[in-house]
Design brief:
The chain has helices spanning 2-26, 38-55, 58-67, 80-94, 98-106, 111-121, 126-175, 182-236, 241-254, 264-269. The chain is mainly α. The protein is elongated, with a radius of gyration of 26 Å.
């Protein structure tokens, strides 16, 4: 229910913003055409993408563009199937039944959990397990922080290219100023200014909110991975599955209202 509400809030926010813009357009039906400027829209979108590609590798920009539809949904919480698979593995490993543990490992789809439990089965050292899991979390953090930075960069470029489109429009208007009447000058001015509006809308209704959403999703993913990492480490220590389950449930409940300190489950394990 909580995650459904978060997904709805994203859709409602974007829909409300678009409806607000449409409402403003409808309020001036006689001049609704001034809100449509295809060259100005191409200037804002194309210029923003071009400048972003200059500042970042093109494959990173492409990845961010593909990521945008995913940001309409919140990161799901740890599902019960993942936890149950972890608990079944922990029970088999604690009892020394490695064949059953291997079988349970084959059913685990989560790559983070699968990699961690594979290291457990392979008999790695505790410090190696901890280091490998932390490296995976650091990689996720670095990758998604870079993606959020690209969105924030696009939010900076969009208004600038909107202003650039306005300057082009003003230059064209001034070049024929002597041959135009006041009505034509006014319509040309409005047509030129609309690109600035496009840039502001793109930055403040899309790019900045999506960057904030991505940063929030990253925090959720890291909390989720921290929770699963502690479960993996408890399984490595051959703790009872009920203790692991209670620790994971306590961690999840704690993080519904506040971010958990990194030492939370360390205290549980002690």
């Amino acid at each position: 229910m909580r995650m459904t509400a978060m997904r709805q809030s994203t859709v409602i926010g974007l829909t409300g913003g678009v409806l607000l813009l449409l409402g403003m357009m409808v309020m001036s039906p006689e001049h609704v055409g001034i809100f449509f400027n295809v060259p100005g829209l191409l200037m804002v979108i194309g210029g923003t993408l071009a400048a972003t590609i200059v500042s970042r590798p093109i494959h990173e920009v492409r990845a961010v563009v593909r990521l945008i539809p995913e940001l309409l949904h919140d990161e799901p919480a740890v599902n019960g199937a993942e936890v149950n698979q972890l608990l079944r593995f922990a029970d088999a490993y604690r009892m020394g039944n490695l064949r059953v543990a291997e079988h349970e490992l084959l059913n685990i789809q989560n790559p983070f959990v699968h990699a961690g439990l594979r290291m457990v089965v392979d008999g790695c050292q505790p410090q190696d397990l901890n280091k490998a899991l932390h490296w995976r979390m650091s990689g996720l953090r670095a990758r998604e922080q870079a993606q959020a930075h690209i969105l924030r960069t696009m939010a900076v470029f969009a208004p600038a290219f909107g202003m650039l489109g306005t300057l082009f429009g003003l230059m064209q208007m001034l070049s024929v100023l002597g041959d135009s009447g006041l009505a034509e000058i006014g319509s040309s001015m409005a047509f030129a200014m609309i690109t600035t509006l496009y840039g502001l809308i793109a930055a403040n209704l899309f790019f900045k909110p999506l960057a904030i959403k991505l940063e929030r999703r990253t925090r959720q993913r890291l909390l989720r991975m921290s929770m699963l990492m502690e479960g993996i480490q408890l399984a490595f220590e051959k703790r009872h599955p009920m203790l692991i389950k209670e620790a994971l449930e306590a961690f999840e409940e704690h993080n519904e209202t506040a971010p958990a300190p990194s030492s939370f489950l360390t205290l549980v394990r002690a």
